[in-house]
Design goal:
Layout (H helix, E strand, L loop, with lengths): L1 E6 L6 E13 L7 E13 L10 E14 L12 E4 L2 E4 L3 E16 L2 E14 L13 E13 L2 E12 L6 E11 L10
Antiparallel strand pairs: 1-2, 2-3, 3-4, 4-7, 5-6, 7-8, 8-9, 9-10, 10-11
Length: about 190
Amino acid sequence: LRLERNIESFTKETHWTLGASGLCGPNATGHGGRTIVLGADITMEWTPEENDHGWPFLAWQTEIMQRRFTLGDGAPGDGDGGAFQIGEGGLAADDTLMDWGIYSQVLWGYEKNWAVGLRYEFASGGSGPLDRSADPFRDDRQRISPVLIWTPTEFSRFRLQYNYDLADHLDESQAHSIWFGMEVHFGEHAAHPH
């Protein structure tokens, strides 16, 4: 489920949007296992009245999310399906894990067809009956990602992104990666260039 609300702006060049989203359904841990994901976001887009097909522009977006993961009675672990074993500790049916995360990103379309951006992400699996040291994948994580985007046509976009990750479960607590992405759109073109 996704809800959006536009906010009146003082200028015609700036557009604000508030959003909320939610997802609820069963998970794979057995009868009674359920996952709920909730999110809230805000987006600001600025494009001057005199522009070249949407360039230049400035876009800022921030979203916060929370996941509530309740174990069912058929969770794997002890052979009887009664406990979800993680490390030395264990979880039983109806135990609930809470995770949350936030990201904020800025994208600047500095000239026609070109944009640069920066994104920061934080996620934590820090709430629930399980000691965090028993599951290293529920530690605090951070990511910083600069990006370069080239949009040669209304129907295509190329993206080059570098990720710098910080988390205790990683070797040396950090990791570096480079990603290349390509999008091709068919049919009507997108309403916005970014």
